[in-house]
Structures are given as C-alpha cells and as structure tokens.
Amino acid sequence: MKLLVTGITGKVGFNFLPAFLDEERFADWSIRAICNNRTITHPAVEVLRASLSDAAAMQSAMAGVTHVLHMAAVKERPDLAMDVGVKGMFNLLEAFRACPTARQFVLIGGDCSVGHIFHKYVAPITETSPRRAYRGCYALTKVIEEVMLEQYRIQYGINGCCLRAPWIMEKDDFRHVLSFRSQFGGPPWSEFFSAEEIERLAQLEAVPLLRDADGVPLQRNFIHVSDLVTAILAALDDPGADGELFNVSMAEPVDYAQVAAHLQTTRGLQVVDVPTPYFSNWLDSAKARQMLGWRPLVDLEQMIERAWAYVRPADDPRIVWYPG
After folding, report:
1. Would the pTM of this model clear 0.85, i.e. be above it?
2. What is the helix (H) or strand (E) element at residue 274, kind and residue range?
3. Do you find a cis peptide bond into 187, omega within 30 degrees of 0?
4. Cα dist from 5 to 96, 227, 228, 315, whole Å
5. How far apart are CA 47 and CA 42, in angstroms?
6. 72-123: pLDDT as tens digits
7. Which end of the chain has fewer CB atoms < 10 Å from its terminal CB, N or C?
8. Residue ranges of domains in the chain, CATH in brackets
9. Mapped to the 3 state alphabet, what secondary structure does 180-203 carry?
10. What is the C-alpha to C-alpha distance for residues 138 and 167, in angstroms, rounded to an integer?
11. How far apart are CA 220 and CA 225, in angstroms?
C-alpha cells in the first residue's frame, strides 16, 4: 500500500506521521508527501515538491498510490485558497479516479463548512445538517471540498471519506486561544475592547468568558490533535468509512464558563465577561463513535492542563502557518 499525503508539514501532519509509522497494521505501507512552501526530511517519506494546482504533477504523484490523505489548506488568502481548496482538490480527485491502484480518498474537513459559531443551529450539528459557510474564502473552500468529494462518489463511484474537525489544539494552543496578550485565532479582541483595555487585561493575564448572542456562556467545538490523529487512523482503509462524512470532535463542546471556572479555581486568574454576537453549537460525533469505533480521549480539563503545563523549547518558536 502507498499513502499520498498533503499537508504533512502542518500541525496534524506532524502528529500523524509518527502515529502512522507506529501503527502495526500500516507496517508494510509506504508514504509519499506532496510539499510546496515547506518540506520534510524523513527516511520513511518520499517527498514530491509540487503545487496542488499543477494537474500534471498530481497525475505523477498518484502513480502507484492506493490511499490519499488530503490535509493541505489555506486560510484567508484568496490568492492561494482557490489553488489549494478548489483547483487542488479537483486535480487530486481527477488523478485519483484515473489511477488504477487507487482505493480510498480521505479528506480532513472543518466545521467552518457548517459555520461553527457564526450560524445558529437549533439542534446538534450532524452529518445531515445543512452546510452554511460564514464570510470569507476559507469556509467557502471547505464547503466546496466536501461537496466535490461527495459528487465524485456519485459521478464515478470513488471511495471517499471526509472527517470534519473543529478547531484543532496542540501544545499551548488553547492557552493562546484564551490570551489577551498573544491571541491565537478569533475572535479579535479589538472588536470588543479598546487597545488600552486589551493591554490592561493582558497584564492581568485575565481569562475571557465569552457569551453567545443569547447572553449565556458560549459553547464552541474543539478537538485535540491527538484525537484527530486516532480518527484518521481509524478511517484509513476501513471499509465502513466508504462514502461517509464523519464529524470528529470532543465529546462535548467547550463551555467558556467551565474554562473560566477551572482557571479561576486552579490558578486564581481573573475572569472577564465578553458579550459576543456568536452562537453556541454542538458538533455531534455519534456517527464516528458508532461506525468507526472512535472515541475522543482528551476532555476539557486535560486540554486546559496540557496547554498551561506545556513549556515551549527554544528551538520550537510559536509560528502559525496559514498558507501552504
């Protein structure tokens, strides 16, 4: 078996590779990685330097491949998002359907395809809930990827599986999600506070307690990268994943009130209410638990404690890679 991977230099890819190599059932598999802006040097990985927008390169990359794991993504960069999320997906699928050895295409999607906190759902979000992208090119590309994979199965009968993940955490990510000093992701604090107030809250190391549009503590979906990796391993080469879309998330959404209470109790941090226009939603992973036998292991307390206990080494600077 030969696995073709995109996005291997990203957060998920960095954690996926050692787990994949340690898994006994993949012992006789080989790996080929498509890299563009960044690359990897590993004795177990054959690297092909190419852009996903290069159709001829994707045809070459697919030679002898049995499985594809597509993780590459670009955030709010319109000049690159279409090349990766639309043209790149199309090129990969075209090469896959024409490849005589191809057996399974696994896509890592995101809950931005259902709008995460930007759209209101009156019930838990399942795999049959409507896709509703929020503003921007990134969410649009994630909707297009899901639909394109679905349609290729209808048109050509390919074996495609999508794992739809929410915000992915590792190392000290979750601490920076809650930081007024060096924020990771959103929402931008400048939408709610003046620059002077942000600086004051940063000095206090205060914790935000986000409230949703109804005034109750916001509930948002997250997943630890280690749990996403186990979901990928569970779906790879599983006949039960054929043609399926799976939500993969923590067992319950993160409740910002519970986060604030834990950090106030364990670390004495000051809590600051932040009213927002966002919506609480629950990404339901019951289907993945039932059909893949997958269970998330990192709960809220563990995610908080891992983030606060993590000490970043000098040779691992905090860099958030968006394009490529």
Report:
1. yes
2. strand 271-275
3. yes
4. 13, 19, 15, 26
5. 9
6. 988 768 888 888 889 999 999 999 999 999 999 999 999 999 999 999 999 9
7. N
8. 2-168+222-251+281-297 (3.40.50.720)
9. CCCCCCCCCHHHCCCHHHHHHHHH
10. 13
11. 16
Residues 6 or more apart whose CB falls under 8 angstroms from that of 164 comprise 109, 110, 111, 113, 114, 127, 146, 245, 246, 247, 248, 283
pLDDT greater than 60 at residue 284: yes
- How far is 138 from 311, CA to CA, in rounded Å? 31
Please state, in angstroms and rounded to a whole number, the distance separating the CA atoms of residues 137 and 141. 6
Rounded to a whole number, what is the distance in angstroms from the first to the last CA of the chain?
26
Residue with tokens 């860099």: 319
Task: Characterise 215 by phi-psi region: left (phi > 0), alpha (psi -120 to 50), beta (else).
Answer: left
Q: Which two tokens stand for residue 44?
A: 């177990």
- The Cα 300–Cα 65 span in angstroms is 38
Q: CA-to-CA distance for 86 and 141, rounded, in angstroms?
A: 6
Residue with tokens 């319109």: 78
Best CA proximity match to 208, nearest among 278, 253, 265, 272: 272
Q: Which two tokens stand for residue 244?
A: 């399926």
Which residue spans within 24-98 are E strands per DSSP?
30-35, 45-49, 67-70
**Is residue 157 within 8 Å of residue 103, measured between CB atoms?**
no
Q: How many CB atoms are located within 10 Å of the residue 243 CB?
A: 15
Phi and psi based region of residue 77 (left: phi greater than 0; alpha: psi -120 to 50; beta: remaining): beta
Rounded Cα gap, residues 256 and 15, in angstroms: 27
What is the enclosing helix (H) or strand (E) of 255?
A: strand 254-255
Q: How many other CB atoms are found less than 10 A from the CB of residue 312? A: 10
Beta-bridged to residue 34, according to DSSP, are 6, 48
